Amino acid sequence: MGKRYEKYKITVKYINGDIEDINLMGINTSNHSAMLKVYHRIKSTYADKVKTIDFVGVSKDGSMNVMWTKEIKPTGNIELKEDINVIMDNISKQMQLIKNKNFYHYDLINVLNKKEDIKLHELEGIKEIKYMNELDRDKLRLKIAKEIEEMRLDRRWHKDQLEMINKLAECKIGNEVLNFTHLSNVFKIKSHKPEMKPLNMKIAEELKLYKEEVIKDKDKQIEKLKKSYDKVIIDPVENKIICYNKAKVI
């Protein structure tokens, strides 16, 4: 079965009747999983500004289908009438959910790491496949590359969720008397999504993450490189020195 939609878009209808397609710079709009995550994020950030939020599938011929609609109903201060026991019960359940999410995201990150490793091995083995022409090999390489891209997007989301849980866990009341203002601030931790910058060999060298040098004066080169890098390795086959730092690549 072929791909049903070529891309997806998110449309909001404001309270005053205006309609707008959300600008999604840097997002792969053909990736269903990535777009669905954006849709869920927009539902919370636009809740007090719009009447409806639509998740729309766009077919190859340009026809569109609203797959999901979130209707935002104004609530005013109706929450003030909520029974305090219900509120406390909800908080208790949400705290348990956060605890469970901690294990969930951790496990899924490890699963995605393993899946990516398998896909990379699969990518490396394409050249060994018998009875396959080069065009088909390239198609298979592209397919696997796209699968790896989706895995990395999923893993980034799980890492962001885990980071927020860790930040929440750092907020402590200690032995002090319960302070509701402080407690309120604990639940107002805002997500900080770091700007994703492209990484290539040139940038990696500038950041002192990775570097390669042709061997000229081996001893002097090694002595100098060890001052800046954790690992300095000699590649006698390629006649070069490879060095890197044990930095976390985002």
Briefly summarize what is shown.
Helices cover 45% and strands 17% of the residues. With 250 residues, the chain is of the alpha+beta class. The strands form 2 sheets. The protein has a 4-stranded antiparallel beta sheet, covered by helices on one side. Strands 5-7-6 form a 3-stranded antiparallel beta sheet.
Observed structural traits:
3-stranded antiparallel β-sheet, 6 helices, 3 domains, extended, 4-stranded antiparallel β-sheet, 250 residues, alpha+beta
Q: What does this entry look like structurally?
A:
It is a single chain. This protein is 45% helix and 17% strand. By secondary structure, the chain is of the alpha+beta class. It folds into 3 domains: 7-71; 84-170; 201-244, no CATH class. The strands form 2 sheets. Strands 2-1-3-4 form a 4-stranded antiparallel sheet, with helices on one face. A 3-stranded antiparallel sheet has the order 5-7-6. A hairpin with a 4-residue loop joins strand 1 and strand 2. Helix 2 (84-124) runs antiparallel to helix 3. The chain is extended, with a radius of gyration of 25 Å.
